[in-house]
Task: structure prediction
Amino acid sequence: MSNVQQRPLRRRFETRRRLLSAAAELFDEQGTIRQSVETICTRAGYTRGAFYSNFGSVDDLYLALHHEQAAGVWERLLIALDSQIDNATRGDALEDGVERLLEALPPERKWYALRAVLLARASADSAFAQSLQLDENPFVAELGGRFEDLVAAYGRKPIVDVALFAKAIVAAHTGAVSEAAIDGQASRTQLVVVTGIIRGLTVEVGTT
Result:
């Protein structure tokens, strides 16, 4: 591809990037996805035409922002899981392994906050909800396999399908993190909730 052909692609990428950044800034400031197209464009320095050449609506923009942030969260979770799997031993307690896993995860409260708002929006709009379906997330099955390997290091195995196992753990963690702003013992809550879900959905290897 020539430089002449690449320039429009670079401009389009930069436009999309700046619109997403503007949306993220506005959400951080206002805690809502109810901004107008004009407000977002003013923040990004673009016209409505530039917006609609990239996104069909403000909802589409925030869904794109959520999916972009989610991909980063899942990737970091996979890296943290791999590290814990490599270093876990059966001499450790499961709670110790979960604590190390949670400590390895970077704080992503902004993503969790956005997700909470999008979930509230989804509760009133089934079409919008479809865009957030965990079953469509390519990381879910992979996460399930990693969690299965993690608990195996502590002599346990899941009693449910690994994808469901992953979804249950993610739901427990995101729910606990969403309470962080009003929970004075947020880290302890996250540890207890995630450990409890893992322990409740696994059995010791060799048992039925």
